[in-house]
Design goal:
This protein has 318 residues and is α/β, with parallel strands linked by helices. It folds into 2 domains: 49 residues; 256 residues, 2-enoyl-CoA Hydratase, Chain A, domain 1, CATH 3.90.226. The chain contains 14 helices and 8 strands. Strand 5, helix 9 and strand 6 form a beta-alpha-beta unit. Helix 1 runs antiparallel to helix 2, helix 4 packs across helix 13 and helix 6 runs parallel beside helix 8.
């Protein structure tokens, strides 16, 4: 059983009835449940499709944060072969919130950088809920430097509420580390692709997402601040996060219309957490298409395309 969000209550009730009916069928084989089971399953599927066809920005935010949504480790497991993780920033320590290394996708070599939230209490604590410290971003810069040196494309898979705001992180130069990681993304002579698969929050996300192309899963969000943070600033009330989400234009659809992102990877009704294999396959296809599109471009052409992309965004928003 999935963890149901509050707006999925009608589906949860139907799924509960389906579970009860199956239990009756298991206990008494003489009772025919097939017809009623089919009817309830159809109703549940229709209800789920109807709900996901008209999600509000706040509901999309809830889906993007769903604890069962696939994480960077899931994409590694299903898409990447010959994975070689690399650790440490060569200055302070290793940061488990940001994973990086080299591998192959569709047989082609790539450098991969991803924020990892974890799947349970133990792993979430280990990965600091996906909020990287300065050493994480310095590690990302180190990996991007290596990729640039050897002509290997960079793929970033992002799901973070933002960089870690703790005292220790600030003392070790969090803002500078984010700025240098963003700058490194922009100056690469190899193609880089960023995919927002859940939350893309603040500088913690943009530090990895200043790429030639930025894609988002349909039910993900990307913004300069969380809805709760925006509500705290605008209304001094984090409880108005729903209103902030509606006003901030943080969904993939809105950002695509503004030209901030370059494409949307579809999610079936119910979200990526209900269709993990299908969504990861679609993501892999998007990555392979990107690698094919950019494989014959020179470093100068790659840099020019990236520069023009961000200049065009600035002009369009004036």
């Amino acid at each position: 059983m999935h963890a149901y969000l509050d707006f999925e209550k009608p589906v949860a009730e139907l799924q509960g009835k389906i579970a009860e009916l199956k239990k009756i069928g298991e206990e008494d084989s003489a009772v025919s449940i097939d017809e009623e089971l089919t009817r309830l399953q159809t109703r549940a599927e229709d209800a789920l499709a109807d709900i996901y066809a008209k999600l509000s920005p706040w509901q999309i935010t809830q889906v993007a944060r769903h604890p069962e949504r696939p994480h960077f480790s899931d994409y590694l497991k299903h898409l990447v072969s010959e994975w070689t993780p690399l650790s440490g920033d060569r200055q302070f320590s290793e940061d488990a919130a940001l994973l990086a290394g080299f591998g192959r996708i569709g047989g082609k070599p790539v450098a991969l950088i991803g924020t990892e939230k974890g799947h349970d209490t133990k792993s979430r604590l280990k990965h600091n809920f996906g909020s990287a410290r300065p050493e994480g971003y310095r590690k990302a810069v180190r990996i991007m430097d290596m990729a640039d040196r050897f002509g290997v494309p960079v793929i970033s898979i992002i799901d973070t509420a933002g960089a870690y705001p703790g005292v220790g992180a600030e003392e070790r130069g969090q803002a500078e580390a984010i700025a240098k990681s963003t700058a490194k993304c922009l100056e690469l002579g190899v193609p880089n692709l960023a995919i927002i698969v859940g939350e893309g929050g603040s500088g913690g996300a943009i530090a990895l997402a200043a790429a030639n192309k930025v894609l988002m899963l349909k039910n993900s969000i990307y913004s300069v601040i969380s809805p709760e943070g925006g509500a705290s600033i605008l209304w001094r009330d984090a409880g108005k996060a729903k209103e902030a989400a509606n006003a901030m234009k943080i969904t993939a659809k809105d950002l695509s219309e503004f030209g901030i992102i370059d494409g949307i990877i579809d999610e079936p009704a119910g979200g990526a957490h209900r269709h993990l294999d299908e969504v990861i396959k679609s993501t892999g296809e998007a990555i392979e298409a990107f690698l094919t599109e950019y494989e014959n471009l020179s470093p100068a052409e790659i840099k020019t395309q990236r520069r023009e992309k961000y200049i065009a965004i600035g002009k369009s928003l004036l």
